[in-house]
Write a structure and sequence with these properties.
With 220 residues, the chain is an alpha/beta fold. It has a single domain, classed as Aldolase class I (TIM Barrel). Helix content is 41%, strand content 20%. The strands form three sheets. Strands 7-6-5-4-1-12-11-10 form an eight-stranded parallel sheet. It has a two-stranded antiparallel sheet with strand order 2-3. Helix 1 runs parallel beside helix 2, helix 3 runs parallel beside helix 4 and helix 5 runs parallel beside helix 6. The longest helix is centred in the middle third of the chain and has 14 residues. It is globular, with a radius of gyration of 16 Å.
Amino acid sequence: MTPELIVMLTWNDKTVPDAAEIFEQCRDLPANIWGFKDVGIEYGEMKKLAALMKAAGKTVYIENIERDEDVILRCADLCIDCGVDFMSGGKYYDSARDRLHGAGLGYEPTLGNLTGRPAVLKGTIEEITEEAHLLMQKGIAGVGIASYRYDGDSVALMKSITAQGIHLCVAGSIDSFQRVDEITACGVASFTIGSAFFEHKFGGSFREQVSAVLKYLQKK
């Protein structure tokens, strides 16, 4: 299975100020899924950015990196107000699922115990895999994981989760084609790239990098 690229207009865990302009430069590319964080630009600009993406026929994500229920519920409300398709990231809560599903949005929370900024993922492979299994029983669309911020064997962790038939999104630190190869081999469903594009890890302009990754995936 070839994973889908989620293009994130974020750098250092914040939406970039010129996100709308960058999207306009890339909207014709065959990248179907776009996203941004719930911080970095004002509420009104988030609504405009989401509307711009939806008007171009894109599937849209808003991602958070929070752990507290009240903050995550505020992000759920933001996602609903902005009319996006999914809320991703953050710790799972039944209350967030209910609010999102009630409005017809998907929910893809993040697995594991994440500590610090940038976050480090803690826990055993068995514990994290079991969490993924339990969360999917809640009726959510999928789960995300910062596998390249894991303090253990990232590849073994991804394989353990996908072996359960779980829709897994890998977020964070995918900054090379080698890692794209790894997540593909692990059966990952989707992955995000944001900061790596702004740091030119894939060469060239933002548009050129997105195009390069899409073409690379087509060869899989």
